[in-house]
């Protein structure tokens, strides 16, 4: 019986304040507290709270037959704790149903896996500790920032004790093969679960698109598509941002009604059930191994890293940031270490993307800056300030 | 298609972007097979342009001819009878000149054969109307700038009235940007349907490789190039420069151009103690402008109100990164530039320092701006204009 495996990503970056070159060295904070609070409040009210409530209801209604997984960045956990503790409680509440799995990731939603393995390991450990503290749950399955995956990374993740990792079901690595099976890493036995991007994006991106030929998308139709896709396969992995529900797709699009109706429509089809990622790997054996020598991600049409690194702005910013690793570690100052880690959140580099053509609209939607150039200028001013704080700029 | 075109400037007779735009547009139109009779107020010597038939308004006004006043908006002084030659410059008795130019236009229109009248800016509104009266051909008023751009809220009432007359009377209006179109609608109450936006472009000089001059790595040059008048925001440039110097002492600021605010700017620079960092070159042309662009590390256009603004595109041709005010038409067609509200001096200074400090920022801006330039061509503008001609003539 093929399974439907759902994973929702929960993350909100900390937005920076406008930090001018003339603010450098004045001891000003980097984050825009007020903006972060407002955004969090808005997303909590539009998405997290109503969606959690609904999921809780569905889990109870179907007596655990409806199951799913979340990955929460450490950054969002801190914000929830600070601004809306009741939202954190509602996630804890979901954890207690036993029908929800939590995945491991980097605490700071960072790209450390690409630039510093010691830093990557440290952030994964921090995140694991946070999962244990809040949800009494030790993750067995890992999802890297933006689903970034490569053979080398899989090896590293397996060494850290994880049994499976999520990745994008990109055509260029699959070729003729289907994303709807469990695979195994090229250099080990880490299980890989691949996002079915067509079905995932039908919900995440196309749900409210009136120019889409399948609009409006109803739960019964979607369940039928899943059934067709799953025929002869093991799993359909629906991976998407949690903010799809109520924030990217507003409530008035009917997205909550869709979510409410989906478990029943899927369970009605007697040959489908729901499993969480670690249940999937307990039930299914891998059908083959995947070679992914170059990192891939779930972003843009290219499914590569060019949303975060590749242009001169991004490369310069990242090089400067990770170039500080040594002095930060040597400083042995927890405050500085934390500040440096916060600057690693991948969103800051996403804002600097100048690849505005094919995926321009998506980038614009998520970018708090009028242009990638302003994102870079602001970030570099902050980095400059931080460099002085850490002592790297003393002689300047 | 034969067009009777009225303009106040045409290279080498230019004081700013209007002449540059007229040249670029007419060249592209002639490539599309459009024949152009271009009427200038006065011609001193030879004009080398072979793609247009040049006519001089002053020679059309033969001595001894009598004219009756045509319009309900009399200039402050009486019109003259054509004894005096046009200067074609922006002088104090400009209003008298544009009226005489209008009279000449009526004469030229009755002697020439053409399908459409195309007039550039308010100085040629009377001319366009007179030519229409004489010929019955449709009249297009092409707006490159408005009195509100040039003077803010202290508008010259008479010029405003001429612009309004032209906008209301014209058979169709071309504006150089959406920015200008919305000003036409808001300030002059025109029906949006009557206005078509045709963005300006930039001409590539044939055979010219945009020489990269060896730049001094120890001393950066920031360039302002334009009339030193209220409209161009020279005061914001100077105030931002003062902030830049605090963060980066090794920077030079070059202001190319002249204008009524120049003495005040020189004084302000002196009172800020920035004299050693500033150069005022006066008005430059041709090769001097080219080498000025090539020498610069950063080009800044802090205009208060810029209907289009071709100079940033010229700077981009030389791989110079640009900062442009958001209050400009060119910001509608350029993505890879730094954009700032002209009044935000702090942010302007922040961007200037960043562009001088971070080579990565310069590389990204200059490499990607070539993508912008690929889409900015006079041929594209000319195609739009030809479609308008055809619509109006059918």
Q: Give the structural class of chain B.
A: alpha/beta
Residues in β-strands, percent of chain A: 5-15%
Give the strand line-up of the largest sheet of chain B: 3-2-1-4-5-6-7
Largest sheet of chain A: 5 strands, parallel
Low-confidence stretches of chain A: none
Low-confidence stretches of chain B: 64-85
The backbone outline of chain A, from C-alpha atoms, is: globular
How would you describe what is shown here?
The complex is a heterodimer of chains A (396) and B (394). Chain A is an alpha/beta fold and 396 residues long. Chain A is 47% helix and 12% strand. Chain A is built from 17 helices and 12 strands. In chain A, the strands form 3 sheets. In chain A, strands 1, 2, 3, 8 and 11 form a 5-stranded parallel β-sheet that branches. In chain A, helix 9 (219-230) packs across helix 10 (255-268). Chain A is globular, with a radius of gyration of 21 Å. The mean pLDDT of chain A is 94. Chain B is of the alpha/beta class and 394 residues long. Chain B starts with a strand and ends with a helix. The relative contact order of chain B is 0.12. Helix content of chain B is 41%, strand content 15%. The longest helix of chain B has 18 residues, at 94-111. The A-B interface holds A 20-22, 311-313, 315-317, 354, 356, 370-371, 373-374, 376-377, 380-381 and B 243, 246-247, 335-336, 338-339, 346-347, 349-351, 353-354, 357-361, 363-365, 367-368.
Detail the topology: elements first, then pairings.
The complex is a heterodimer of chains A (396) and B (394).
Chain A: E1 3-10, H1 33-61, E2 68-72, H2 74-83, H3 85-96, E3 100-102, H4 112-115, H5 117-135, E4 141-142, H6 151-159, E5 164-168, H7 171-174, E6 183-185, E7 191-195, H8 197-204, H9 219-230, E8 235-241, E9 245-246, E10 249-250, H10 255-268, E11 273-274, H11 277-283, E12 289-290, H12 312-322, H13 325-331, H14 334-342, H15 347-350, H16 360-366, H17 372-390
Helix pairs in contact in A: 1-3, 1-10, 2-3, 9-10, 12-17
Chain B: E1 2-6, H1 17-31, E2 35-40, E3 53-56, H2 57-60, H3 94-111, E4 116-120, H4 125-135, E5 139-143, H5 147-151, H6 157-169, E6 172-175, H7 178-188, E7 195-197, E8 220-225, H8 234-247, E9 251-256, H9 262-271, E10 278-282, H10 287-295, E11 298-301, H11 311-317, E12 322-325, E13 338-340, H12 345-357, H13 359-374, H14 378-393
Helix pairs in contact in B: 1-14, 3-4, 4-6, 8-12
């Amino acid at each position: 019986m093929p399974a439907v495996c759902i994973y929702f990503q929960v993350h909100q970056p900390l937005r920076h304040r406008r930090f001018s070159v003339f603010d450098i060295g004045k001891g000003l904070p980097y984050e825009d507290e007020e903006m972060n609070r407002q955004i969090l409040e808005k997303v909590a009210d539009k998405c997290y709270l109503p969606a959690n409530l609904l999921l809780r209801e569905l889990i109870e209604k179907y007596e655990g037959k409806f199951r799913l997984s979340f990955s929460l960045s450490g950054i969002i956990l801190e914000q929830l704790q600070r601004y809306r503790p009741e939202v954190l409680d509602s996630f804890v509440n979901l954890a207690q149903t036993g029908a929800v799995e939590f995945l491991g990731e980097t605490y700071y939603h960072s790209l450390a896996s690409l630039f510093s393995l010691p830093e990557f390991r440290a952030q994964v450990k921090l995140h694991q500790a946070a999962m244990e503290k809040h949800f009494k749950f030790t993750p067995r399955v890992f999802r890297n920032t933006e689903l970034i995956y490569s053979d080398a990374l899989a090896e590293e993740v397996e060494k850290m004790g994880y049994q499976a990792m999520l990745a994008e079901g990109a055509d260029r690595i699959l070729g003729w093969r289907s994303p709807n099976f469990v695979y195994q890493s090229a250099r080990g036995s880490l299980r890989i679960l691949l996002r079915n991007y067509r079905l995932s994006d039908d919900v995440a991106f196309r749900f409210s698109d009136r120019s889409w030929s399948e609009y409006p998308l109803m739960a019964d139709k979607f369940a039928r598509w899943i059934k067709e896709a799953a025929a002869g396969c093991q799993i359909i992995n629906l991976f998407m941002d949690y903010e799809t529900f109520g924030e990217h797709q507003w409530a008035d699009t009917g997205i909550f009604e869709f979510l409410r109706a989906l478990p029943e429509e899927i369970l009605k089809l007697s040959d489908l059930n729901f499993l969480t990622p670690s249940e999937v790997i307990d039930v299914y054996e891998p059908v083959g191994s995947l070679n992914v020598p170059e990192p891939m991600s779930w972003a843009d049409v290219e499914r590569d890293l060019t949303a975060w690194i590749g242009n001169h702005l991004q490369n310069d910013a990242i090089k400067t940031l990770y170039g500080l690793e040594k002095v930060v570690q040597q400083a042995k100052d927890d405050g500085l270490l934390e500040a440096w880690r916060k600057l690693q959140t991948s969103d800051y580099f996403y804002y600097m993307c100048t690849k505005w053509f094919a995926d321009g609209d998506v980038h614009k939607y998520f970018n708090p800056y009028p242009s990638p150039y302003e994102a870079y200028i602001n970030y570099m001013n902050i980095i400059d300030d931080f460099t002085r704080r850490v002592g790297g700029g003393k002689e300047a | 298609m034969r067009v009777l075109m009225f303009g106040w400037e045409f290279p080498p007779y230019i004081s700013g972007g209007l002449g540059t735009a007229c040249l670029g547009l007419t060249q592209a139109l002639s490539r599309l097979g459009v024949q152009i009779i271009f009427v200038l107020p006065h011609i001193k010597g030879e004009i080398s342009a072979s793609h247009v038939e040049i006519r001089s308004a002053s020679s059309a006004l033969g001595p001894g001819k009598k004219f009756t006043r045509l319009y309900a908006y009399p200039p402050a002084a009486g019109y003259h009878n054509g004894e005096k030659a046009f200067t074609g410059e922006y002088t104090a008795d400009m209003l008298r000149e544009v009226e005489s130019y209008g009279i000449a236009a009526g004469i030229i229109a009755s002697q020439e054969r053409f399908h459409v009248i195309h007039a550039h800016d308010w100085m040629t509104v009377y001319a366009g109307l007179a030519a229409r009266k004489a010929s019955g051909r449709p009249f297009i008023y092409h707006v490159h700038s408005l009195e509100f751009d040039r003077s803010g809220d202290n508008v010259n009432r008479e010029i405003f009235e001429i612009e309004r007359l032209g906008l209301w009377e014209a058979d169709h209006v071309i504006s150089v940007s959406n920015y200008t179109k919305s000003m036409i609608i808001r300030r002059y109450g025109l029906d949006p349907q009557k206005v078509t936006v045709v963005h300006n472009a930039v001409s590539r000089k044939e055979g010219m490789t945009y020489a990269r001059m060896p730049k001094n790595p120890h001393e950066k040059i920031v360039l302002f190039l334009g009339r030193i008048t209220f409209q161009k925001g020279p005061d914001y440039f100077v105030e931002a420069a003062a902030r830049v110097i605090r963060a980066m002492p090794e920077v030079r600021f070059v202001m190319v151009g002249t204008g009524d605010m120049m003495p005040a700017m020189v004084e302000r620079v002196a009172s800020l103690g920035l004299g050693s960092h500033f150069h005022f070159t006066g008005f430059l042309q041709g090769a001097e402008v080219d080498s000025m662009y090539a020498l610069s590390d950063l080009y800044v256009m802090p205009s208060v109100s810029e209907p289009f603004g071709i100079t940033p595109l010229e700077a981009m041709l030389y791989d110079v990164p640009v900062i442009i005010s958001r209050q400009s038409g060119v910001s509608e067609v350029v993505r890879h530039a730094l954009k700032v509200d002209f009044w935000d001096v702090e942010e302007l200074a922040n961007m200037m320092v960043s562009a001088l400090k971070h080579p990565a920022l310069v590389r990204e801006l200059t490499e990607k701006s070539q993508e912008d330039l690929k889409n900015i061509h006079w041929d594209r503008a000319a195609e739009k204009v030809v479609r308008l001609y055809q619509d109006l003539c059918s």
